[in-house]
Amino acid sequence: MANAYLQGVEISASQFLDIFHHYDNDGNGYIEGKELQNFVKELQQARKQAGLELTEQMKAFVQEYEQNADGKIGIVELVQILPTEENFLLYFRQQLKSCAEFMQAWRNYDADHSGYIEADELKNFLKDLLRKAGKQYDDKKLDEYTCTTLKMFDSNNDGKLCLAEMARLLPDQENFLLRFQGVKMTKKEFNKIFELYDQDGNGYMDENELDALLKDLCEKNNKVLDPSKIPTYKNAIMALSDGGKLYRTELALVLCADDD
Fold it and tell me: pTM of the predicted model, to two decimals?
């Protein structure tokens, strides 16, 4: 079925999702190694069978990955290759270009501050995204986009997106949350850390207190976190704050393990 979809002049959002899941055999969120080699081969075969030329994006992709056994692509990279209709994932990239912008959007659309974007909140987010991009849509299409986005990124199938799941819409180089996955803490550890760095005990961290915490985290985890990126980390995390006050629940989204 995925091979037939690759022959399409235009691929629907749901067909795109089927293609991604077909080639992401191990379900880790990436098409890599042998998976990627198979995709490159079958993409070329499918376009040839359909009598279609490779697009310029496809040609560049094939040239980069055909002989690259160590290659790896995620959903956002794949969506730039395939001719997906009404490409709402690319609208996201165009409207939210940095991690700080993403974090600010998260804060705006997590209306109940639950730490999750639920279906109705996600629908509002996508509606505004399409409006900003100047794209036409109807309620049926918006429902399809909402459903497809949940299916793409809701890794534990709980019907809502946590911060790390939603952040997969960002390109890897902008997604500092990928690095912070390697320093996640238990709730008990996190609470101790928060109390230690909330030096004045007022229940929130300001920018200076967060800066001290990040410097120590980078020093202890220098193989995972990049000390030169501290300003970037800080700006992005402070985008979750309430007027410069970073409360425990907001910082927990970045540092506290989800399953604890």
Answer: 0.71
